[in-house]
Amino acid sequence: GQNIDQPTEMTATEGAIVQINCTYQTSGFNGLFWYQQHAGEAPTFLSYNVLDGLEEKGRFSSFLSRSKGYSYLLLKELQMKDSASYLCACMDSNYQLIWGAGTKLIIKP
Amino acid sequence: GAVVSQHPSWVICKSGTSVKIECRSLDFQATTMFWYRQFPKQSLMLMATSNEGSKATYEQGVEKDKFLINHASLTLSTLTVTSAHPEDSSFYICSARGDRERYTEAFFGQGTRLTVV
Asked: What angle do CA B53, B106, B61 make, to 5 degrees?
């Protein structure tokens, strides 16, 4: 079956760095997405990886290893506004998104 | 990025009535639209996938006669919750995707918070 795993909750300190991991097993692979979702709001797109390696975009970076079925989202210089849920999603061979349960990130001063 | 508009943002209705939620792609043609439901502190649950001009494909456990989906044009899909009950209260979110080569990311509407009293 298809499965996406990511930690349920993480806590980090303002100004620090945090890495949110995601492992996946899907029928085919057409890329991995990271979304940010604040409580009560719809998800917003953060990144898309389809090739191995690190994609950097400002304070956020996303890494993919297709051979390991693994990705991480790296957040640097954490700000209080980064407190949110972070959703990992894979696109399978049918171009359907398979969603992880999300990681709730709590930022403390 | 592309814009998806969802309306209404929130709605309160009486038990037994029906509610229609609209999802529009404003600057691209959405060949595929997705409807999700999200309960508090839970992840997105895909309810159904619809392609323009054809019947929606519902996920297991989702009643197609209760959650009516219409995708009559490339820019509009609607979800109608028929005979709503309090257990249908949830956050409903649509997303839309255009040509798969050009729009691999899914763009989300703002979501609709439905409360059935």
From this structure: 65
